[in-house]
Amino acid sequence: MKALMSVGALVGVLGLLMLIGMIFGVVPSNTVRLVEGYMPMQVLSELAVFVAGFTGLSYLANSMGMAFPRFWQGVLFWTFVQMYLKFRIYPPIPFSVRAMYGVVSFVAVFMWVSANEEDWKKFRQPILNVLDANTGFHKALRTMYLILVPLLIGGFSFVTMKPSVDEPIELRTVHPAPPASTKVHGKTYTLQTSQNPYRVNLEGKYDQAYSNKLIVEQGMGRLMAPNANPWDEKAEGYLKYVREGGEIFFQNCHFCHGDNLNGRGLHAFAFNPIPANFTDPGTIAQLQETFIFWRVAKGGIGLPNEGFPWASVMPPWEQHLTTDEIWKVILFEYWHTGYYPRTWD
Amino acid sequence: MSKFRVNVKASPLLGAALSALLISASAVGIGHAGDLPEGFAKGELAPAPPADMIEAGKRVYFTKCVWCHGVDGAGDGPGADRLWPRPRNFNQGTFKIRHTASGELPLFNYNEKTPGSGKNDLFDTVTHGLPGSAMPPWEGILTEEQRIQVLSFVTTQLVKDRKFTDKQSETQTILQLGTIKPAEATEDSVKKGAQLIVDKKCIECHGVEGRGDGNAFNLKDDWGFSIQPANWHKCWNFRGSRQDPYNVRNIFRTFSTGVNGTPMPSFADSTSVEDRWNIANFVNSLCERDEEGKPLGIDPLTDKPKINFVVPSAPVEGEISNDPENEMWKKQGRRYVAMGGQITHKPRNFVNRIDDIWVKSLYNEKSVVYLIQWDDRTKSIAEGKLPWAPTQVNVENFGVKEQAPKTGEEGSIASAQNNYAVYNDAIAFQFPIKWQEIPAPFKPRYLFGDAKFNADILKWEADGSLRSFKGTGWDQDFEERDDFEEKVKLLKSEWKDGRWTVMISRPLKGNKDDYDEYTRFDIGKYIPMVFFAWDGHNGDAGRKMAVSAFYYTILQPPIPQEVYIYPAVIAVGVVFLEGWMLTRRANKKKGKVL
Q1: Of A32, B55, B279, B460, most Cβ neighbours within 10 A?
Q2: Rounded to whole angstroms, what are the CA distances from B512 to A190, B393, B507, B509?
Q3: Model ipTM?
Q4: B136 interface with A at CB cutoff 8 Å
Q5: Residue A133: how many other CB atoms lie within 10 Å
Q6: Among A164, A242, A266, A298, which would you mutate to test the B interface (most chain B Cβ atoms within 10 Å of its Cβ)?
Q7: Cβ-Cβ contacts under 8 Å, A163 against chain B
Q8: What is the average pLDDT across A99-111?
Q9: What gap in Å lies between CA B552 and CA A167, rounded to an integer?
């Protein structure tokens, strides 16, 4: 038990040191990289490791007779969660969201320290001690609090009231509802019934099961499946169209959506909204192929207002590409990310 | 000569592979080799990667790399013709960022997987990418194993003219960066560096102020493509910055080893280690910093400076100075505005040579002034009169065309650089007209507004003109507004040592108090703003330009009195609350519970 707890304590100390390093900018916050797509799981497991670490720490302190008062445990844990959210997570979470998490974690800590009568007593004892000020130390502490609290609250309200020039927060819908049909190059496509004419098997029939077998493999790197090289001279049908789509992608789209389709192309840093990250499971993996067709063909300017058509630099690709080229690019995007287009059923 | 020491001891217990590595560091070395440049030591060629690794790398290459670097690694993939710099042609074995002496192959060892070890140049390049080019960092996308695999494939199969393992023809003379102690960036060191860049003729190419504006027209790489000298003020665009742009070691390395395939030589033979540090310290000191002289925050997602989308304008009393060095301007913080190519409508601008501008703003009771500064290696003013009217937006018929997707090297964008017809350098910004009636977040479109919501555009061109336009859509010609033009003022426009400084003043409102025709600036309101920039030597004109995202400008109001009063009132209230709590507690203890 003790050995286990010691390991826990060690993990806790290491983790804390790292977080403190990040807060003071000594340790870069990307030391342990947050991997795209796995971030929520990673954050949860990191927090779990921290909790285990803290349990170990408090157990060890207890057994060494240096028990940590329950009050400070509560306060420190809450502070820790706040620091973790602020300094570990990237891209940064806005203050308003962190405040929400702050309240939730406050309630959680409160429930923890007030779980039973004895714990609750232990928790509030230090507070009462200061209020009663029976010893000289507590008296000094109480005087300090009496002066500090009004000053802090006054200062805080001054800072909030001072006119600031923060960026206004504007919420944009990334995937707005599509229209029922869209007209591209003179032809009307009903989104529910249209199909990618290049997602075909060797007989030339629309066959998603066939193409699904040839997309890149999921997992780190997302490499092409063995024997499914679009650059093979003998590649025909679906794989040949994938290559043609890739050529169009790397002549037109990668400038923003990036060489790995992760939305980090050459020009991406300048634009807001940022280009979509197709490797994120929340973009093309969640959408039907015809939805993508509509978005690609009509571009940013064709979005409904909730998609901020005035700010998006996504070209209406019908101005640059033929319908066939658009379908091929879409084919390539699914191939390269290893996702299946969602189907209507 | 023996300023550095290699502290590596070979141990018989280590595996063969590992010791091969160590030998590369300790052999000959120890700093007394006669004709080696200072700071370098002889190394051994790394072992050839095993066949299965090469085979595995082929799979990585044809999934990720082939699209730009091409089937034979000749840098001629489908994406190549619209890129500048062009993707690397691997065939000759010419690589830019190395720890090896000028002309030598870079370090590549399939056993060395620690990023930043300085023992695996190609691995670091793939890991961190080459900022300022289309080569992205592959860390987090490809595993270390996959990165090593693809390099095994590239170095053995696609480098065709040279052989990484051929002891007859190849040598490795390695910069011992890990063991050389950097010289502190003291004032003295920076000052010496400033003199050295003149003595060593760095300024011939990199320019007097290091903005890469020296010999910008005549430089070509080994393949005959135009290239431009690095701009020392944008260290985040240094190819060798390894995602750590303010690290002086990167500059020291590039200066010591040169950039193969380009006119940038190695200065190792002619410059002592100490002088190299002085130069590196000076170059590093030029990179843009914040008001306190600290490095700019770099966004790890983009490897560029972090962006704040608000351009604040501070109030001043009386006249606004037209001198950027004036105290009132110096006090006001500047904002970094990122610029991307206009890639939405034809003619798209795949290569924008202006990738950021710096903006400051002040206002008084009559006008608001914008001070815009940006780096442009070339001062461009069109010869003769432009064939189109200033209001014309659709200038494709006059030869302003976008790069065709597939042209081959001859017709590629890299070949076209510096061969374009020269138009005017220009800068413009737009605000919505009648923004008061448009509820946020609605805005007129970023590209010259739209039919419903028009844009108020001010455009300055290097021929000295400053014009006011109304924009009604991306493909609609501007409407010129002469009456307003009399009121806008060009306070300053100057090109010096690779940088434009343009100061533009405009009235806070039109003639009347209404806002139907001209943007009216109301204090304390967020007003959307978009910037446009043209580099005349890039053939920029019409929609072929650089463009920013939406920013907000805000005239900062003077701080109202309530801001001082209310917090004081609140603090007093808290004091009363404390008194009440203490009394209550005291009563409770005495048993007088109420």
Answers
A1: B279
A2: 51, 29, 12, 8
A3: 0.89
A4: yes
A5: 16
A6: A266
A7: 524, 556-557, 559-560, 563
A8: 91
A9: 8
Test B338 with A151 for CB contact under 8 angstroms. no
The residue from A162, A195, A226 where one domain ends is A162
- A46/A149 same-domain check: no
Q: Which of A162, A197, A231 is the last residue of a domain?
A: A162
CATH top-level class of B187-286: mainly alpha
Q: Tell me if A55 is assigned to some domain.
A: yes
Q: pLDDT per residue over B76-130, tens digit each?
A: 999 999 999 999 999 999 999 999 999 999 999 999 988 778 899 999 999 999 9
Question: Using the beta-carbon criterion (under 8 Å), do A254 and B134 form an inter-chain contact?
Answer: yes
Looking at the structure, tell me whether residues A125 and A107 fall in a common domain: no
Give me the CATH topology for the region B16-175. Cytochrome Bc1 Complex; Chain D, domain 2 (1.10.760)
Note which residues in 203-222 of chain A have CB less than 8 A from chain B.
Answer: 216, 220-222
CATH class of B311-375+425-555: mainly beta
Contact yes or no for A162 and B559 at CB 8 A: yes
CA dihedral A122, A123, A125, A128 (to 10 degrees): -160
The pair of three-digit structure tokens given for residue B567, joined into one six-digit string: 């917090």
A168 touches chain B (CB under 8 A): yes
Digit-coded pLDDT (tens) for B20-37: 444 444 433 334 456 899
Q: Are the C-beta atoms of residues A55 and A113 closer than 8 Å to each other? A: no
Q: Which of B221, B238, B234 is nearest to B131 (CA)?
A: B238
What's the rounded Cα separation, in Å, for the pair B181 and B175?
A: 12
Are A248 and A296 members of one domain?
yes
- CA of A305 vs chain B CAs: smallest distance (Å): 8
Give CA angle at A182 (A177, A187), nearest 5°: 165
- Taking the C-alpha atoms of residue B455 and residue A265, their distance in angstroms, rounded to an integer, is 29
Q: What is the DSSP letter of B541?
A: B
How far apart are alpha carbons B443 and B551 in whole angstroms?
Answer: 11
